[in-house]
Design goal:
Order of helices and strands: H
Protein name: Putative integrase
Largest sheet: none
Organism: Providencia burhodogranariea DSM 19968
Strand content: under 5%
Number of strands: 0
Shape: rod-shaped
Structural class: mainly alpha
Length: about 40
């Protein structure tokens, strides 16, 4: 739907717009990057 038109209709009807809820990401532990001692050669 056209978001502007939906907003206008909802305002005329006196309805509340549905707000999009942002997903809360879980907190991750910060780990240092592993530094390879030798090059990865196949």
């Amino acid at each position: 739907f056209n978001h502007k038109r939906v907003y206008r209709v909802y305002c005329r009807l006196g309805l509340n717009l549905k707000r999009r809820v942002k997903k809360v990401l879980p907190v991750r532990e910060k780990k240092p990057l592993m530094v390879e001692k030798t090059p990865n050669i196949q």
